[in-house]
Write a structure and sequence with these properties.
- InterPro entries: Kinase-like_dom_sf (IPR011009), Prot_kinase_dom (IPR000719), Ser_Thr_kinase (IPR053235).
- It comes from Gaeumannomyces tritici (strain R3-111a-1) (Wheat and barley take-all root rot fungus).
- With about 280 residues, the protein is of the alpha+beta class.
- It is about 40% helix and about 15% strand.
- The chain has twelve helices and eight strands.
Length: about 280
Amino acid sequence: MESNTASTFDLQIQEGQKLRDGRYGPVFLALRLDTGVLISAERLDLDEFGEVAVLKSVASQLQQQQQQQPEQPVVAYIGHKRSDGHSYLLTEHMPGGTLEDFLAQGAGKKGVELSMAASILRQVVGALERLQRRGLAVALVDPKRVLLDSQGKIKLDGPFFCDRAVTGEPLPPACLTVPELVFGQGASMRKADVWLLGVLAAQLLSGKQDAVSGRAASIAAQLRQDQKSGFDLLVSDRVKSLPDSDLALDFLRQCFTVNVDERPSISELKGHPFLASPAA
């Protein structure tokens, strides 16, 4: 299988050093032998049809990257490589892993400190706003798609759509709680990213990376039938009782505004006092 994004450099894939489970298969550490730079190599455990679809998507993303400014807030796609009978998707290496990894490895057992949560969320909001200014509609915000470097700086990993037909993978459970989908307003997803940002914030503050898993259908039903508050349904009592958390709780309430016309946009949230507070 050939593509104009096929990488010509030699590569040493460390299959004994699995970094995490990716969207399409395991992600390994790899070494570019031409530059000595470490990169990530995701093995595509897909059938031929699936591989073709993924590699076509990569080609499109690489073309977009070439047209964008440097220092973009997304994980850079390098191309793909065929090695030992497998196709690998090559991206820049983010040594801090995903936010999901960060929580699962114990950093979030008691919840992330307010200042650290604010720092992460401020970066996520800034990244989303920059992508939107470039004309990219971003709807999908998820701990698996927020990656950290060794200094705590974040980048987002696409694609960014709440649409299985586009992503080729099951949607995160949190997507099923977005009011626009619950109330059949899927054509108006312009602020879905704000709702999902609230889910991400609640996960950081509670330390539970699976805060919605297993509850998404129930949450959606309560939103639809009982007109329950998103804040009441998605924010744990522990987070609600955190000391000195008034700004954080107000941020969550705004993210979980059910009425999309009343929910703030990402640009409006950028100036929220919680993200701009000195402690952050």
